Amino acid sequence: MSLVIIGSAAFDSIETPKGRREKVLGGSGVYASVAASLTGEEVQLVGVVGGDWPESNTRLLESRGIDTRGLEIRPDAETLYWSGRYFENMNDRETLEIKLGVMGTEYDPIVPEEYRKSKFVFLANGSPQCHLALLRQMERTSLIIADTMDFYINNCRQALLELLTKIDGLILNDSESRLLTGEANPLTAARKIQQMGPQFVIIKKGEHGAIMVTPEGTFLQPAYPLENVVDPTGAGDSFAGAFVARLASAEKTGLETIKEALAWATVTASFNVEGFSLERLLEITRDDIEQRRDRFREMIVF
Ligand code: AMP
Prior knowledge:
- The protein is an alpha/beta fold.
- It has helices at 28-37, 55-63, 128-137, 150-155, 157-164, 174-181, 186-196, 235-249, 255-272, 279-283, 286-300, and strands spanning 3-6, 10-16, 19-26, 43-50, 66-74, 80-86, 93-99, 120-123, 143-147, 169-173, 200-204, 210-214, 217-221.
- The two termini are 33 Å apart.
């Protein structure tokens, strides 16, 4: 089943204890789309880039089967640039620089006609105003999941609160859930978010896994244990993209499907952090994810 993803396409400069990379391919929409495409689902990307975006990046996404007709190019503007540095624990990071460029407030996404009947939508990190504009163009969605981050919680709270009334699920990390609700306890924060709109909430806790709160119950998901984390950038986006795509590919709905999609998402994100930028996601196949998912199952079932 097809899946629409809106998010950033960006140049990232990243510094981690394992090294640094300058102006490499990144962006929430790019990570989420590549991760989602690894399930075999048809991914339809919506986003905007500037005149500095090399054609080869678009070709790369297309080579993964990602539909880029919704990727607008604005020749007179610059692509989003983000630079960040990770601390020794690899969980915490600081943003050194962000230039929104084309992602500034004047971006009003245009959803290609061919995307509008897709039932599944993932709203990756980007402005909630853009997310709302995209949803107004969709004709028959059945599952809408969004991600958000401190930048938008701080700067676009009103639009974010409106967005929350229109989505089925929200994925965010523990510090973001605290910022959004004022609650340090993730369970209490998740319940408060449910009262704002989304039926289910997934709160990610980095290397400590994730907690999912649904009307049917609460589930814990450990992270896949890794010895060699190289670059955590995009872990959240690849987790979320893989999660929504896995739900889109499922024949059944229900709790078992959601739990399996969570494991799939965790494993996809674990590959992502083994290399800088998209290096690892571009190397692996669906078989690699399946094999690691099976090993993961053995680790957590008792
Ligand atoms: P994550 O590590 O999952 O939080 O995602 C990191 C990605 O988000 C990087 O590739 C950045 O280019 C992108 N990013 C950083 N800031 C923003 C922003 N304000 N809006 C959209 N995407 C962003």
